[in-house]
Amino acid sequence: MHQPNDQLYTIPAPYRRLENLHILFWLLKDIGWCMIWKPLGISMIFPTLTIALLITWRTREIKAELAHNLAIVFWISANSYWMISEFLGFDTVVVWGNITGKHLALLPFLTGLVILLYYYLVQKPRENRPEQVNA
Does any domain span residue 3? Predict the structure, then answer.
């Protein structure tokens, strides 16, 4: 049941269709990775990432959507880099100490995580704080 103060988040139909197309490309990319179909996996990076960036841009005015969509952009970037590292065989190459080529995917993964942590620990509490009126 909706409370009187509840805000509804609606999404325009063209945006929803774009999100659905995004899911299709993402699935094709990951199927290509799983099946080691390099041309499919690699060719799906561009449309998947492009649509993620477009969705992020279109929802930038809503802080919660911006944070989550930025995290998705970094997730897809990390995921794509990891896939490429496996396809090209540098996933197990030692870069420094115990860190391999695959571990470098942690950089965009952690960037997305930091964005979400900032949103939930800093931004969202500010949004939930009642307006203070100066007397």
Answer: no
Higher-pLDDT residue of 130 and 134 is 130
Residue 132 domain flag: no
| Residue 80, domain member (yes or no) | yes
pTM over 0.85: yes
Token pair, residue 126, equals 């500010």
Q: Is the pLDDT of residue 133 over 80?
A: no
CB-based burial label for 8 (10 Å; 0-12, 13-18, 19+): exposed
Rounded to the nearest 10 degrees, the angle between the axes of helix 45-58 and helix 63-87 is: 170
Q: Give the CB-side neighbour count of residue 55, counting CA atoms within 13 A.
A: 27
For the residues 110-121, what does the mean pLDDT come to?
Answer: 98
